[in-house]
Amino acid sequence: MMKPTMKVGLIAFIGLCVLFYQYHLSNVVRYDQLASFNGADSAAFISLEDDNGSRKITEDTIKNAVRSVQYIKGLSPDITELIIQELLSQLLIKSTHDNTLTPSSTKSSSLVDLKQVNNTLEPLYIITPTYRRSEQIPELTRMSHTLMLVDNIHWLVIEDSKIPTKQVTQLLERTGLKFEHLIAPMPDKYKLKKGAKPRGVSNRNRGLSWIRANATDGVFYFADDDNTYDIDLFKEIRRTKKVSLFPVGLCTSYGLSSPIIKNGKFIGFYDGWIAGRKFPVDMAGFAVSVKFLHQRPNAIMPYRAGFEEDGFLRSLTPFEPTEAEFFGDNCTRVLAWHTQTKKNNPSLPLNMKIHNNTNLVQLKQQIV
């Protein structure tokens, strides 16, 4: 059975093909008008000649049209690029059957370059611990819309639960992203412990186990679902060779957690809670190479509240803070924020005597 995202992609592709075909038959919307959206001087274009003269559809026009569908329908980057390539390919094929379409020489080279870029990108593995709560689906929805804009990404969503949440699975399937929906409940001995609890540790360690068993290259990053991420962050961390460190905003009373760089050199850490930690960083403030992890088979995150990041980075020994790669333009830009959505009270139950057989029954199933 075709996946929902593939259906949407196919519908978008067919729709765009019909659109261009209709433009070809009609003079209601002129090609030069469409081309003007991207400027008349675009180097890569498809030229059409008719009684009214030359008309142009730029390659950028096609890309923008498809990406507009991507944003509206939530297509993954891979599907979006496939539709673009297929549209351009169809137009090129048409030119071999008649002389209506004449692509410029830069067209084929741009397609080759696009494929080469996608093939050379190492995968990013995003490990996201989550748990059932009122904010879970909204948080994951927001995060998924960010990840849809990132190429060659594999999302490991790991629930602190004994069974996967159906709504989470449905959301992940709709994104079109490569994903794993895993479970890793916190051990009972930590749940029953008084005081601060090591939340997310079982989830992240489950993610590490999956990577060790299934990945050989690329970079992984612990990305909580209640944070906000700049797209540039993912471009930067993809370059990680060992361990990269970078600033995180809205952390502790300082409002910032970051390595300190002076005259281009690392001299320490700025964080509102040092507590004797060798690596006083936020969970969103570092990324690790998969190959580097494989070279440290004993690396693990400890069940110690407040010391999870420090314990994990220490377990990558031998590794010192001075060996880290400092991203975010040498730690001058904040690309991740600890935004933390306001916690909501549980939804009140429906009065089924009044609201049975109404739309509210279905809506309440989506709200915790």
UniProtKB/TrEMBL annotation:
Belongs to the glycosyltransferase 43 family. The lineage of its organism: Eukaryota, Metazoa, Ecdysozoa, Arthropoda, Hexapoda. GO terms for biological process: carbohydrate metabolic process; chondroitin sulfate proteoglycan biosynthetic process. It comes from Aphidius gifuensis (Parasitoid wasp). Mn(2+) binds at D226. It catalyses: 3-O-(beta-D-galactosyl-(1->3)-beta-D-galactosyl-(1->4)-beta-D-xylosyl)-L-seryl-[protein] + UDP-alpha-D-glucuronate = 3-O-(beta-D-GlcA-(1->3)-beta-D-Gal-(1->3)-beta-D-Gal-(1->4)-beta-D-Xyl)-L-seryl-[protein] + UDP + H(+). Coiled coil: none annotated. This is Galactosylgalactosylxylosylprotein 3-beta-glucuronosyltransferase. Its cofactor is Mn(2+). Pathway: Protein modification; protein glycosylation. It comes from the Eukaryota. Keywords: Glycoprotein, Golgi apparatus, Manganese, Membrane, Metal-binding, Signal-anchor, Transferase, Transmembrane, Transmembrane helix. Its EC number is 2.4.1.135. It is a single-pass type II membrane protein. It is found in: Golgi apparatus membrane. InterPro entries: Glyco_trans_43 (IPR005027), Nucleotide-diphossugar_trans (IPR029044). The keyword Nucleus does not apply. SUPFAM superfamilies: Nucleotide-diphospho-sugar transferases. Glycans are attached at N330. One of its GO terms (molecular function) is galactosylgalactosylxylosylprotein 3-beta-glucuronosyltransferase activity. The active site is at E309 (proton donor/acceptor). GO terms for cellular component: Golgi membrane.
